Amino acid sequence: MKLNCKKISVLFAAIAVALTGFAGSLQAVALSDQDKQFLAAYGKAHDALVSDDLAGAKLAASDLGPAGADLGKSKSLDEARSAFGKLSDKAVKLASGQSGYYVVHCPMKNKDWVQTSETVANPYGGKDMISCGEIKK
Q1: Three-state SS string across the chain, please?
Q2: How distant, in Å, are the alpha carbons of 23, 57, 94, 137 from that of 89?
Q3: What is the pLDDT of residues 43-75, one digit of tens each?
């Protein structure tokens, strides 16, 4: 009887090791340097919009390359936030499953964004709605 229990224990241990290796292979693919640069510039735009800083958002757009063209041309915070929403689609795809990035959702605006802090900082409502949102699981 003890021998069977040992065999079962060894079998379960082997299965656990195999599943751990499989789960590790399901993690997100490592970000390229270009993706990291995009997310860093995106983060600067995020921070500027949280602070209602149109000039800062437009400055950050220059580091986003062609993807930031609409943000760079924005003439108002509303236009900048709309352009940021399009950038957020790309950022969410890149950051999903990556360590150190949080995908946050604003139910009032029905928009998502990426940030590196666990403290919600909503770029779509600025200072008036800074804490509106929740981190997605």
Answers
A1: CHHHHHHHHHHHHHHHHHHHHHHHHCCCCCCCHHHHHHHHHHHHHHHHHHCCCHHHHHHHHHHHHHHHHHHHHCCCHHHHHHHHHHHHHHHHHHHCCCCCCEEEEECCCCEEEEECCCCCCCCCCHHHHCCCCEECC
A2: 26, 17, 9, 17
A3: 999 999 999 999 999 999 999 999 999 999 999
Q: How many CB atoms lie within 10 A of CB 30?
A: 8
Residues of the chain with pLDDT under 50: 1, 10-14, 16-26
Amino acid at 38: F
pLDDT of residue 12: 46
pTM of the model: 0.79
